[in-house]
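PROTEIN–LIGAND DATA SHEET

This sheet pairs a single protein chain with one bound small molecule, zinc ion, given as SMILES. Inputs appear in the order they were entered. The predicted three-dimensional arrangement of chain and ligand is reported afterwards as a token string under its own label.
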Amino acid sequence: MANLILRVNGVLPAFMQEMGHYHKRAEELAQKAWPLVNTSCSLFIENGGHPLFHLLVDIGSGVVESLLKYEYTKRLKIPGYKLRPPDCLLFTHSHPDHCVELYILLEGLMRRRPQAQYKNWKLPLIGTPRCLDTLIERFFWLKPHLEPKAVDFDQSSEIPIKGVGNISLTAIEVCHAEHAPGAAIYLLKCNGKKILFGWDFLSIKGNANSLLAGADIAFLDGNTWNPHPETGHISITEGLELVRLWQPRHTFFIHYSGYEDQEDEDKGLPGPMTTAELETRIAEVTSHWDWPPHRIQMARPGMEIHLKENQGPEVFYAEL
Ligand SMILES: [Zn+2]
Ligand SMILES: [Zn+2]
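PREDICTION REPORTED AS:
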């Protein structure tokens, strides 16, 4: 029976932690164990503990190190454990905080031994046509080793996984930023589970409400607490309205910065908040929903969500 494991490789926004800023959030991020890694997730599909497939969603700053450390900490518990390198990369868009380490991963994988075996090897990249064009232009010297697999908006594409069946991916067109052509959020279906990789957007083009309703896991953009459309992102308060509408079983807000909230004294100065403060605020806003508190949380770096067939998700936290 195949199981899905989602690992949150990183949760941070584009500029991670700006230098010269002193507030509680900065202190939280400065802690030794809080990895400075841009927003990224890995989806592992495994059967009886045997990894069959690794889909990496976005590869911004710190993601390669995060995966290497994941392998190392696993090996402390399971001697001989080897991380399955990504079989395929999925890109939400081409902003540097979502792609900058592509060359490190690819060059590293090509240096595997025996090297001759990887001479003609290519790494499949999934994204919308405009997103992939931009990426290939940016990483032009890697072109012979990239295998672009373009997906069109609103159409589901199937990735066959040997022994499991298909992963189905749907790209949903979003408004995000002028310099992020072809930006999308992705709905993934596999093994009866529905997962939303929903970061870096200000609004959704078209009506995807029925598609997005009832996801098992929704990662949702939440760049600020208060609405700040100038950032190209939705805020957590706006995200909560979508959560109310889509009713995911579990929501994890990700890509939080809070930088623009600093100007919002008139709104009660919720400036960059710590994870605990954000979750307290979320609980206040949703207190009358009658939902269990863990249904909406802030994503944490290194957390794992295990999704077994016919079971609710189990969440495991990395030690921070
Ligand atoms: Zn971003
Ligand atoms: Zn972006």
